[in-house]
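Supplementary Methods S3. Complex input for the zinc ion-bound model.
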Amino acid sequence: MYNRPFNDNSYEQFLKEEKIMGSQCQKCGALALPPRPICVSCFGSELEWIQFRGVGKLAAFTSIIVAPPFMAKEGFSKNNPYVVGVVELEESAKIVARITGVDAKKPEEIKVGTPLKAEFIHSGQGPEQKTYLAFKP
Ligand SMILES: [Zn+2]
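Predicted complex, serialized as structure tokens:
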């Protein structure tokens, strides 16, 4: 389907195109998201791209008050925390991503099991341009 290497660069390129792409082993069927060049389960190297629908539910989360520089640039800080969570996708793969559309200051109101949908956050310009995967209720 796509002639791209199974690595983080390809994964990020697909995110820019607003696609969530992982790898699937042709031998045992195991999924990897982000994609890995070798099957994480049977170490096979016969892989195929698989597109994830971006629908899942919140499996775990944490409210982050110490923002890395690129998040600090967007205005996140101790007084303006953000949420990162583990999302269990309906294809039964898990991914760590930012959770938007929830109140990071009230983590007690965020519920594990909340249905989520993928959102693509484009930031920066030109060669600096990057796309982050986030999920929102
Ligand atoms: Zn495998």
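The pocket of zinc ion is lined by residues 25, 27-28, 30, 39, 41-42, 44 (CB under 6 Å). Residues 75 and 116 are 24 Å apart (CA to CA).
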